[in-house]
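Chain A, query sequence.
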Amino acid sequence: FHDGEGEPVWLFSPFVVERVPALYATERPGLLADWMSLERRLETLGRPSAWEWGAALALMLASGALWFGVYSGLRALGRRTPTLWRRDARHAAWPFATLVAALGFRLGTEHLILLTGPVASNLDVASEVVALGAALWLLLRLVELRTRRLSERYVVPLPAEDPENRRTKTTVYVVRRLAVVVIALLGLGCWC
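Chain A, predicted structure.
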């Protein structure tokens, strides 16, 4: 409210004020609220504070630890798989761990540590881009590994002397590459 002479004042209806405890009961303010009071956070509204950057850094370190744990676990699991699947497990571990860590970071910024606009908007977008890139990378890896396995099993044993076999090998190779290109284009379409 602004009467024209003094400072503008925010006015809230009694209904809104009554609902504040219910809002806090349904939406937990996050760990940052335990470290820093709401009044102090409002003073720095629009300007990221050192507390927020520290909380974001701690969340990034936790996501890095999650990435390392998932990656190490998948590599150890890959060593225990049959020899046929060992290479596939090794190649899929990196993008899968990156996807899990990016999603973990995103969930952390939504439910664990609620950050203000400037910090949250940049980190949320970055984590979504990393998660989408990792998911696309993982899908490309899995399609490439699966099609290579099928071609090694059914196409490579064909003798190359027969022109029909050469045509089949070329067709399978082109279809493999085309599948990878289609997935890449679909992934780029998701980003845009």
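The chain has a mean pLDDT of 78. The longest helix spans residues 117-154.
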